[in-house]
Description:
Blueprint lengths: L14 E5 L4 H17 L3 E6 L1 H13 L4 H6 L3 E5 H8 E2 L2 E2 L1 H16 L7 E5 L1 H7 L3 H16 L4 E6 L11 H8 L3 E2 L7 H14 L3 H11 L10 H12 L1 H26 L4 E5 L5 E4 L2 H6 L3 H4 L13 H13 L4 E9 L5 E11 L7 E8 L1 H51 L3 H29 L8 E4 H11 L1 H7 L2 E4 L4 E4 L1 H17 L7 E8 L3 E7 L31 H11 L4 E5 L5 E8 L16
Parallel strand pairs: 1-7, 1-8, 2-3, 2-6, 6-7, 15-17
Antiparallel strand pairs: 4-5, 9-10, 9-13, 11-12, 12-13, 14-16, 17-18, 18-20, 19-20
Helix pairs in contact: 1-2, 6-7, 9-11, 9-12, 11-12, 16-17, 18-20, 20-21
Bound molecules: adenosine-5'-diphosphate.
Adenosine-5'-diphosphate binds next to helix 20 and helix 21.
Amino acid sequence: MSPQPLLEKPEPEAHLVQFYEADEHVLTQNVGRYLLEGLKLDEGLLVIAIKEHADAFIRELERCGTDPDAAVRNKRALFLDAEETLDRCMTGDQPDWRRFEHVIGTALLEVRSREDHLGCRAYGELVALLWKRGQFSAAIQLEEFWNKLLESGNFRLFCGYPIDVFGPEFRADSVNALLCAHTHVVPAGLDSDLESAVGRAMDDVLGAEILNVRSEMRTSFQPIAWATVPAAEAAILWIGNHVPAKADAVAARARTYYHGEKRFRALVENSADAISLIDAEGNVLYASPSTTSILGYGPRELVGCNWLRVVHAEDGDIMGRTLEDVLATPRRTVHWQARLIHKSDRCCWGEGTTTNLLDDPDVRAIVSNYRDITDRKHLEEENEKRAQELARSNAELQDFAYVAAHDLREPLRTVAAYTQLLKIAQSDEERGQCADIIIGGVTRMATLLDDLLSLTQLEFDNSREAVELHRVVHQAFKNLEQAVKESGATLAIDPLPVVQARESYLIEVFQNLISNAIKYRSVAPIEIRVTSEAWEREWLIKVSDSGIGIAPKYHDQIFGLFKRLHGRNVPGTGLGLAICRKIVEGMGGKIWVDSKPGMGSTFCFTIPRDMTTDGSELGAQSKD
Ligand code: ADP
């Protein structure tokens, strides 16, 4: 079959055609894109379509973020019904040039009359209607009218034809005439799906012949018409002309593959998981639309980039090894978890599976699908923290119950023993002594119970306020007024910071440390000094005294429950430092002591500094 040009050659790139019967969705996408470009270029739009198509185009334009209604209101766009407009362009069964010129010319004038309009784009289905009715020559004539109008300039035309590229009508002579009337054929399939479906179908149907056919196609392929025809459509037409006996089988197989591919693509593109195809070097060949919701990148933005680019630097090695593992074991699915970097630089947790299908001729890629598990990861971390906290507090409770029982029993034994003695006491004096000892035991038990209660009642709800440490130390010193007066202790306070904490807890800490400094004094005058140092992420607070000091082997023990280094002659329950430790650790800090016997003691503890995102600290240094 030789091409039979029927018409004058149209202007280059001015007259596009798409055969859409095999996939109407592609028509909507392509016309949507064509009209959108026009709107962006401030061109006028004339759309002559059946209602169903016009509605689909409007929805597509809206989906792309434009407002077609506003364009209509501003007279930038005009939508005409195809049936009605065709009637107005015909006289009987034939298109009438004068009517056509009047109807279409007026409509074009309407959308391009505004001065700022640079050009105009038309989309038309008038000819398609004639084609559908089988009025082929009338259709070709109408195309001729359009080309005549195109010559008068400054507009483009896109025609949609309900022709099935897989059907026999696509290989009929009349299609040649149509191609001659256009400058470009817009692909009838999505991306490269149609091309790969036709390629696979040719391989299957032509078998051993395929090599010959391909080389012949390359050397003897003459443009069938003037139009630039995409590879898939050109191959179908070529087979129709040169291997007609197999043309139907190739087209039928190609249809099956194309729709299979489309279904598969629909699955991939509508999956919540992101799916990527990667080559052996780790370069992204394809990224599905869900990539945007997980990593913020548009699917095409990642194509050509190395996959490791979106992996957190600290997980780069693990993911590099995962890729090596995948490469070494084709078809085995490897599971992974790693931190990924979102386009906005935020870090998120990804979990996925990767399979090496490089040796599968239909895939030839490493397939990776993954999802965002950041929320789940945070929940797991939270649960882990809670479990640790629970284990710690259980252990503490056991410890506590054991020690408490042990220490409470001791005054109880005293009370029991002296009550027995009281029963057999002979004199008032003996009875008085017993009663005093019993009262002492009971008082000691009461003090122990009070201290235990204050230890167990410490609850950390993480509520914090700005606390001026300087004021807190003064308050603690004031609470100990009597002991301070009696001992003649002096207090020196260096400049102290404002910290984020619970004020009442900090008063308790200083009160315990200062009262210990007074209790465990030596014969030398008592000097207490409170100082602070700013560390990178915390404050170091020191309470030093000039007292008796503590041997290094007791430095850890004294923070335990009821741990005392002194006898009854010095009052105390051995709970003061345990309370301090619980408060400090509850705030996220640490507490310890530096001391040597006879050299005084320095109790140190840290309070985390609350940093703002710009690195400055909440609160400020308070004045002395
Ligand atoms: P308490 O003072 O009621 O005995 P603490 O828990 O406050 O209990 O202290 C535990 C032990 O640590 C004390 O019994 C004491 O022996 C020792 N200690 C605490 N503070 C000092 C200090 N500033 N100087 C010397 N020893 C101290």
